[in-house]
Amino acid sequence: MPRKSAELTLWEPKIRMETRADGSMIVWQEDPLGPYPRSMNARFLEWAARQPDKPWLAERAKDGSWHKVTWGQAANLIQSVGSALLDLGLSTERPLLILSGNSVAHAIMALGAQHGAFRRRPSLRPMPWQVKIGASCKTSGIS
User: Fold this and answer.
1) For residue 73, how many other CB atoms are within 10 A of its CB?
2) Which residue has the higher pLDDT, 127 or 16?
3) Which of 53, 62, 106, 139 is deepest in the core (most CB within 10 A)?
4) Taking the model in full, what pTM does it have?
C-alpha cells in the first residue's frame, strides 16, 4: 500500500523471494498490477496534452545555443514521423534502422517508429555512410 507523507506518496510493495537449490533467486511482487497505459507513446501524448509548452528535450546547437523541443512540438513531430514511416512502407517485416548518435532528432525518430507500431534498431556506432535524420525536424520549423 502507498504511504502518504506531506510531500509525496511512497510505494511500499509486497515482495516475495525464493532461493532455489542452484543459487538462482526468483523475486516477484504480490500486489496486483495497477493501471498502466496502453503504450509508452500513449503516456507521452498524455503528458504533451498536459504541458504542451514545457521543454521536453534540449541539446546544444553548433553555435552553442540551446535547441529546445517542447512536449507539444514533440508530440506533433512523433505523430508525423510515425505516419510518414508507415507511408514509406515500413512495418514489422521492414524495420527502421536509425544511424545516429544521441540527439533530439534520434529521439523523435525512435518515438515516431514506436508510434507507427513497428520495430526499429538504433545504431550508436558512427558509420562512414551515416544518414542524417535531422531534416524532418528542420522542415517542421524546429531547428
Assistant:
1) 22
2) 16
3) 106
4) 0.64
- Mean pLDDT for 32-43 is 86
d(CA 102, CA 117): 21
- According to DSSP H, which parts of the chain are helical? 40-50, 71-87, 104-115, 135-138
In this structure, how many other beta carbons lie within 10 angstroms of the beta carbon of residue 113? 23
Number of compact structural domains in the chain = 1
Total H helices, total E strands in the chain: 4, 8
Task: Categorise residue 117: left if φ over 0, alpha if ψ from -120 to 50, beta otherwise.
Answer: left
pLDDT tens digits for 71-116? 999 999 999 999 998 888 887 778 888 888 889 999 999 999 888 7
Distance from C-alpha of 131 to C-alpha of 110, rounded to nearest angstrom: 14
Cell of 14: 509486497
Question: Is 18 inside a domain boundary?
Answer: no
